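A further point concerns the way the authors explain their paired sequence and structure data. Showing the layout once, in full, would remove most of the difficulty. For illustration, here is how one protein appears when written out as sequence plus structure tokens:
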Amino acid sequence: MCTYHTASVELAASAKTPEGWTSMTSAIVYFDHPVHFNATHALMIDVMNIAKGPAARVALELDPKSARALANAILTTLDTVPIELLHQVAS
């Protein structure tokens, strides 16, 4: 295993799983060998609710260019939202 850096993040989120919509409480981000994506290495994002087990997990495997584009799109979108709306989001 050659994971370079692993970051864990607590979340307040929901995701659609095979069982339907469920709360997500954490994410793990790392760079390693993908399971399904056809590349030797990829950025992985696992979003999960550990208390609910493997059925409450959503996984992404991204090439570096796609990962950066997604990160930039998230930041750009948040930067354009009126500040008063950001404070209305439930935590």
